[in-house]
Amino acid sequence: MASLTFEHIKKTYGSQSNLTVKDFDLEVRDKELLVLVGPSGCGKSTTLRMVAGLESISEGSLYIGGQLVNDMPPKERDIAMVFQNYALYPHMTVFENMAFGLKLRKMRKKEIAERVHAAANILEIEHLLKRKPKALSGGQRQRVALGRSIVRVPKVFLMDEPLSNLDAKLRVTMRTEISKLHQRLEATIIYVTHDQTEAMTMGDRIVVMNEGDIQQVASPHDIYHYPANLFVAGFIGSPGMNFLKGVIEEQHGELFFSNPAVRLLIPKMKGKLLKEKGYAGEEMIAGVRPEHITHVTEQKKPFASSFKARVEVNENLGSELIVHVSAGDERLTVRLDSSTSLAAGDSIQLAVKMDKAVFFDADTEQAVY
Ligand code: ADP
Ligand code: MG
């Protein structure tokens, strides 16, 4: 196994002047499961393909296990790649499919058999070794495709949306399988997905990309609670974070986030920070997660960070209630306990847990911490 170092990697296709990958600078630790996540077209596959040697690197240096590999042919890089479209050979059995790459390498029959059985054991597909792909379910096929890559014991695994073709339930199961596989193999894995839930549940660390740029590299916890900017905040989390435009107002030594729909008291520590950074009187964007808005049922005195809203649509998910509300021109999503009883058209009082709110500079869209 090995670590990987991306040093200011850039990619342009052909004579295009725009960069598909802009300045990818990152260290992937040995035995880490690193997830690259971002919307379609942001450069995830291009980045993986440069690691595999299937695309040239336009600028920068790539090291695998300390060795510069920019000009090393794919075969010599000792990397296994698993794609979304796992093409198994239909006329071969599962065993033969898994053994194929090793045979090409002229490995001894006995060792091939040992490796295939070991991989099949890890993936729990030993009972399928004699079957042909057409006699397998989608999940079993994907397992065989994984098996084909692990028999080689490569330095690094690259996985490009390997679960995208599976149905929702199977995807959830296979996510866990890959996480377990990662632990058993103690492998370095770069895993690409456009699905933020997949990224959050699988990654040791997550790299959020947009338009060829790294937006943030952090643990799932930090990406969720301390997003670096508006893009990351909006991309991670479902239902997504609410964004409110407003002004930071100062009154009697206290700061409020204010717009025609809401007037929210900013906690002292946060207020102090915003003031120090010169945001008093300035326009900002406040980001509030749906679970950080609560329903105020008994209100004795006006609550400093509450506001009036109208229920538009309710979605009862069994475990929780997703409520879409309007307040003035604002549209917000709120996550409440499923026992809450609300109907469209209800006028309700909501409160924001302001200590959890994230403030963004209205111009740069960077979070202010
Ligand atoms: P992702 O995997 O994040 O969806 P890709 O890395 O596949 O994104 O693509 C990033 C951008 O590069 C896209 O705009 C895509 O159209 C472009 N692109 C990908 N492959 C090529 C190619 N071979 N030639 C020219 N442009 C390409
Ligand atoms: Mg892709």
UniProtKB/TrEMBL annotation:
Q: What is this protein called?
A: Multiple sugar ABC transporter (ATP-binding protein)
Spell out the SUPFAM superfamilies in the cross-references: MOP-like (SSF50331), P-loop containing nucleoside triphosphate hydrolases (SSF52540)
Q: Does the keyword Cell cycle apply?
A: no
Would the keyword Hydrolase be found if you checked this record's keyword annotation?
A: no
Q: Which UniProt keywords apply?
A: ATP-binding, Nucleotide-binding, Transport
Source organism of the structure: Bacillus atrophaeus (strain 1942)
Which SMART domains does its entry note? AAA
Its taxonomic placement starts with: Bacteria, Bacillati, Bacillota, Bacilli, Bacillales
Question: Which InterPro entries does the annotation name?
Answer: AAA+_ATPase (IPR003593), ABC_transporter-like_ATP-bd (IPR003439), ABC_transporter-like_CS (IPR017871), ABC_transpr_MalK-like (IPR015855), ABC_transpr_MalK/UgpC-like (IPR047641), Mo/tungstate-bd_C_term_dom (IPR008995), NA-bd_OB-fold (IPR012340), OB_MalK-like (IPR040582)
ABC transporter domain sequence ranges: 4-236
